[in-house]
Design goal:
312 residues, alpha/beta, TIM Barrel, six-stranded parallel beta sheet, two-stranded antiparallel ribbon, 11 helices, 39% helix, 12% strand, globular
């Protein structure tokens, strides 16, 4: 693939692609997408990154754009062009999918609503889009009731029971579970990243109770009959880099403990490994990067693809 030699974005892109090469296929990059740039430039950055060996694209609608029906026609057209490219080249997209607080301005988190992604996937041109809804809708979300002006709270993955789960009105987790549970969207995934509730007190919930609630939610959804969720949900980290040296280092250990129960153990391999292999489309990634990846990196990634059940 040709690279836009001399473009100002090549140096930082190459810096991280060179870093990834040092790890022999154990580190894969995702390039940030910015639809506010001119369309040619926005797509050129993505294409250059993919040409340098990046694996996928990071989409962050809470920065002020939405995946479909954006009010800005230029942004809308640029996003459609990205989706066409990703479908054609089988490039996975990782999108932020959580209510607050990481947003460009108050209310821009509404642009991360998974219902908007459902509209995208229902469009004939983008049914093959490989997509992961990061954070799977998220944990506790607090907001001000417009009528009473009082603070309300929805618990997402940390609801205490099915009644509380069904009573949620605005939390994204409920929609994420529905979308990832049906066969209609075979390339749609979600990840349980940055669920800080299992590590530190959040609102009125302590970490031990949060772990119990998360485990119960997983048991309830993964063991339902005729659900695709076991093949669609996966582990994610996504902690801010300074936090990786602090309390969040225990996150993986806690998730492993949760999946070590008799009920959840049968789902552990898919959750921690195989679903990520499928979402990343590792075979296709190796195929388009044979000239970039070392022989050792190719062997490592193809072995992962085989162990993950990805057929040749």
């Amino acid at each position: 693939m040709l690279i836009t030699t001399g473009a100002k974005w090549i140096a930082p892109l190459k810096k991280y692609s060179d870093l990834a090469k040092e790890y022999g296929g154990k580190l894969l990059g995702f390039v940030a997408f910015d639809p506010f740039r001119p369309q040619d430039e926005a797509l050129e950055i993505v294409k250059d990154a993919i040409g340098l060996g990046y694996c996928g694209v990071k989409f962050y609608p809470s920065l002020g754009y939405q995946p479909t029906n954006d009010v800005n026609k230029k942004v809308r057209d640029t996003i459609k062009a990205l989706f066409r490219y990703c479908c054609e080249k089988q490039i996975p997209i990782l999108t932020h999918c959580q209510r607050g607080p990481w947003m460009a301005y108050k209310g821009s988190d509404k642009k991360a609503d998974p219902l908007l992604w459902e509209e995208v996937l229902l469009q004939g041109d983008f049914t093959d889009l490989s997509l992961c809804l990061a954070h799977a809708g998220g944990g506790i979300y607090e907001y001000e009731d417009k009528q009473t002006k009082q603070t309300k709270r929805e618990y997402g993955w940390f609801c205490k029971d099915e009644t509380e789960w069904e009573a949620q009105n605005i939390h994204y987790a409920k929609t994420v579970v529905r979308l990832c549970s049906i066969a209609r969207f075979p390339n749609l995934y979600c990840d349980l990243s940055i669920m800080r509730e299992v590590l530190i007190p959040v609102a009125d919930l302590g970490p031990l109770e949060a772990r119990n609630r998360l485990a119960k939610s997983l048991e309830r959804f993964l063991t339902k009959q005729e659900t695709e969720l076991p093949k669609r949900i996966m582990y994610g980290s996504d902690w801010h880099m300074p936090d990786m040296l602090g309390y969040s280092r225990n996150y993986l250990r806690i998730l492993i403990e949760i999946f070590n129960s008799d009920v959840l153990k049968p789902f552990a391999d898919d959750f921690f490994f195989k679903n990520a292999v499928r979402f990343l489309r590792l075979r296709e990634y190796v195929e388009r990067n044979k000239e970039i990846l070392s022989d050792a990196a190719q062997r490592h990634l193809l072995e992962l693809a085989s162990l993950g059940g990805v057929k040749k």
